[in-house]
């Protein structure tokens, strides 16, 4: 409370009411977490596929090199 008034946690900027970070809806925060998890899962999938491809190519090169000896 300031000067006998209850302070609102919203901020007025350029004539518009803006919500502070604390007032974000819990569903939005939950959606952000889910979105980050999905992005991470997709990144892991691509990374592991790349590593499998690199290993396969290495095996092919080694086996073809050994065949020529």
TrEMBL record:
Top-level taxon: Eukaryota
Name the UniProt record assigns to this protein: Uncharacterized protein
Organism: Populus alba x Populus x berolinensis
């Amino acid at each position: 409370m300031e000067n006998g008034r209850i302070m609102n946690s919203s901020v007025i900027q350029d004539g518009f009411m803006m919500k502070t970070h604390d007032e974000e809806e819990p569903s939005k925060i939950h959606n952000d977490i889910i979105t980050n998890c999905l992005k991470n899962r997709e990144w892991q999938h691509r990374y592991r596929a790349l590593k499998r491809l690199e290993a396969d190519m290495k095996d092919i090169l080694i086996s073809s090199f050994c065949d020529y000896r």
